[in-house]
Amino acid sequence: MRARRRGGLAFALAFSDQGLSALLSLGTTLWLIRRGTAEQLATYVFWANAALVLGTVIGAMTTVHLYRLPPTAGRRGTERAINAAHLSLTLLASLGTFLVVTLLGPPFGLAAATLFVAGSLIGLHARALAASRGTMVHAAAISAAAMLAVGAAIAMEAWRSQSPDLTLLLACNGLAQATVGLWVVWRLCGGLAVADLGLPARRRQLVLARRSGWSLLAGAGNEVFTRLYIFVVPAWFGATALAALAAAQTMLRPATLLAGAFGAASRGPLVARRHAGDTAGFWRILLLGAAFPAAMTFVAGCVVALLWPWISALIFGGRYPGLEAEVLLWTGVLVLGCFWVAGLAGLQALGQLRHLAQAELGGAALCGVMMLPMLVLFGPRGALVAMMIGGLLQVVLLARGIRRGL
């Protein structure tokens, strides 16, 4: 009974963390839809996804190894080596972002994107550190800080009847995540010695780097699958087309919270079932964690598509009408995503990174191959059709990998 209560509390805190992050993204997007321009919305989507791409790549070499460590004792040395590696790569990514910003023209060339990317990378790592230690309250604190900072900026602009200042919003978000994220790392790792650059730590980093090949391939494959349209659609059809796809997805984001919370809170129970040899219990957790969020997402997508004329007129201020088809396509993508989250958690709990990489690369390759013909046939919405085709293959390969791992 006590274990169930702890599991329920962990899930509730993980859901809160996911909810705050989703609320932050939803609030920013809605503000830009109602008061901003299509170029501002597209720029926000571009940099938000660029930060996630970098977070996945860097996390595959560093953060992912935190999940293998015991929750409390016996992890300090490896943890500090991982922290040092992540901070070093974050610095390099920030410098690279600064160089890209100087080369990009309007609307994507915003100087505040450098601070936003750096803060996002620190926040992602600190939240993963908290999750690996089972202290989801610290992860939620990072999301809450970013939401409060950006919310205050939006409230100030609304009170003054100002148009959105995307530079201000990105800067507030990045600064809040960086500040609270560094505090969480300091708090959990025992003071100033949060990162170790000594010889033993560098040896640990080399060992972890050699173990990161499959996770890096898996992360790269997932990012190609998930974010390819972010860069292809505006290059082909312009920023306005990307803004329309982002607007169609906006009202569906709360429906994905259950899947995200399951992914954050399920790894401990799945590892416990694995070590206990409880194959049936392992599958039961995965199927419940995939099917329930998928059903809720499907219902939410149908309702949003049905109510889209009202949403466009009242919530979006008369902007982005006629996106019912895009909403339904996004619903299909997100329903498959619920099963992907469950498969990802299952393979990580089993330590089957090779099967994970194969599934991610297979789905990404099919999505990439289908992207061009789907865009030719269906225009910008064809990107979502390509993602559904690749996502279906991805889920099949994940299930096969789990079956083999068990």
Automatic annotation (TrEMBL):
The keyword Membrane is assigned to this record: yes
Transmembrane helix among keywords: yes
* Membrane association type: Multi-pass membrane protein
InterPro entries (UniProt xref): Poly_Biosynth_Transport (IPR050833)
Segments passing through the bilayer: 45-69, 81-104, 110-130, 137-156, 168-195, 285-308, 328-347, 359-378, 384-402
Q: Which PANTHER family match?
A: O-ANTIGEN TRANSPORTER-RELATED, PST FAMILY PREDICTED COLANIC ACID TRANSPORTER
Provide the protein name. Polysaccharide biosynthesis protein
